[in-house]
Amino acid sequence: MQNHEALITLVLYAGLLVGIGLWASSKVKSEDSFLLAGRNLGAIVAGLAYAASSSSAWVLLGFSGFVYSVGLSAFWMVPGILAGYAVVWFWVGGVLQRASHEKGHLTLTDFIAEGLSPKAKKWIQVFGSLMIAYCFCWYIAAQLQGAGQAFDDLFGSGLALGVLIGAGLVLLYAFFGGFVAVALVDMLQGLLIAIVAIVLPVAAFLAVGGLDGITTALAAAPPAYSDVFGGRAGFIALGFVLGISATGFGALGQPHLIAWIMAARDRKARISGGTIAVAWGLLVYAGMGLLGLCARAFFGSDMAAEGIFFGSATEFLPGIFAGIIAAATLSAIMSTVDSQLLVAGAALSHDLGIRKLFPGRDVLVSRLCIAAMCAASIGVTLLLPSSIFSRVLFAWVALGAAFGPVVVARSIGWRPSAAGTIAAMLAGFLCSVVLTFILAKSPGEGWSTIMPWGVALLVLAGDRLASRKARADLRTAPASPHE
Predict the structure, then answer these.
(1) What is the 3-state secondary structure (H, E, C) of the chain?
(2) pLDDT of residue 204
(3) What is the pLDDT of residues 52-93, one digit of tens each?
């Protein structure tokens, strides 16, 4: 076994996580407390937990590797990500938070189905929960793959063993402690990622000779690497910028991120939490982007893109510090799975209605659904190889297109019909599946991020026009002779 410092740090941190889970289990008194922590989170916890839940393996391994591979054009993703954070917290968040507190919503599909008939609500919950479960298998698999890859890089354990250890640890504290444990752990995770996003890129920047070293590397790379549009021009460049920036607006439809808004204590906590989340995002994405460029300057183009993070930690930091930062970051990657497991468990137990099969055992059923989702995600990780970036991109785009347009419609005062809501959800989701798996060739292809939203919004617009026409026809219809 190598990296003893990293191993010791990891064991201590794992003990802390499990301890938090066991302590938080005493706070779980109901389904509401297990799934949303009683809607009483403060700004710091909610903001940091949201940010960490949205970005751990994706930003540390995926985004840094994306910049390392494609160059300056990858940075167009950052404005969209930050704009997505801001829109969710400062605009949509107001409607979501009020509805959650006033109506007692526990999940995103509760909010979407508000005001519709019980039958319509049931169908929306069924379709929504199945979409969430499917996408989260891929999303969680990406995080478990990051954990397995980190274990292998640090300890030479092999991917499978690392995946199992990471999954087992997360399952322990999420299973017992619910949202309270997840909130505290993800707050710690957010702080750890922020520290790493400062220390490691600064060390790499100094190691490659600062700005001069990066400039030299850019000059030696293929022309597309140093071009802000990646060698594209005209409408193709515009499509690329719009496509890669639009990725950030997938946050509007992410159930595990919406949950943090619903759990925030009040308006003040939401506004302050959103400010913390946006500032965190700016710091971390800038740091990982800088790391990607520094890694290109130091290693050339020969490294595996998603291996540069741990390779850089080993290369640029003194032994004990490299081990400590790598182990702490590994723990952060693993703990990102928690909110996704919790929300997926809520989708199956609450939205799909599995809890109704066992009256009075709501929390137990939620816990068992979490365990089932964890097992399914392990299977996807080990049996369906893919990159972390691709797994997360698909789940992010598909969930964003399925739920985001309906959330936007509700936020501007639209009340889509039951048929329109279901049709928009299915259209956005299925379009994402087709475009991601069949047509899209790389992150940022415009049609894979923009078109699913466009299709869903067109469905909602058609539904609105049809509803207006129906109301107009009703007003102008001749009175019945029996009236």
Answers:
(1) CCCHHHHHHHHHHHHHHHHHHHHHHCCCCCHHHHHHHHHCECHHHHHHHHHHHHHHHHHHHHHHHHHHHHCHHHHHHHHHHHHHHHHHHHHHHHHHHHHHHHHCCCCHHHHHCCCCCHHHHHHHHHHHHHHHHHHHHHHHHHHHHHHHHHHHHHHCCCHHHHHHHHHHHHHHHHHHHHHHHHHHHHHHHHHHHHHHHHHHHHHHHHHCCHHHHHHHHHHHCCHHHHCCCCCCCHHHHHHHHHHHHHHHHHHHHCHHHHHHHHHECCHHHHHHHHHHHHHHHHHHHHHHHHHHHHHHHHHCCCCCHHHHHHHHHHHHCCHHHHHHHHHHHHHHHHHCHHHHHHHHHHHHHHHCCHHHHCCCCHHHHHHHHHHHHHHHHHHHHHHCCCCHHHHHHHHHHHHHHHHHHHHHHHHCCCCCCHHHHHHHHHHHHHHHHHHHHHHCCCCCCHHHHCHHHHHHHHHHHHHHHHHHHHHHHHHHCCCCCCC
(2) 94
(3) 887 766 788 888 999 999 999 999 999 989 998 999 999 988
Q: Which amino acid, one-letter code, is at 397?
A: V
**Residue 64 Cα distances to 68, 266, 308, 372, angstroms:** 6, 35, 8, 31
pLDDT tens, residue by residue, 389-417: 778 778 888 898 999 999 999 888 888 88
The residue that leads in pLDDT, 272 or 345, is 272
- Residue 477: CB partners within 8 Å, gap ≥ 6? none
Is residue 170 within 8 Å of 341, Cβ to Cβ? yes
Q: Rounded mean pLDDT of 434-441?
A: 64
Q: What are residue 264's DSSP bridge partners? A: 41
- Burial letters 125-137, b for 16+ CB under 10 A, else e: bebbbebbbbbbb
And the tokens for 397?
């785009």
Q: Which residue has the higher pLDDT, 10 or 131?
A: 131
Q: How confident is the model at residue 3 (pLDDT cuts 50, 70, 90)?
A: low
- Cα(301)–Cα(221) distance, rounded to whole angstroms? 9
Distance CA 291, CA 268 (A): 35
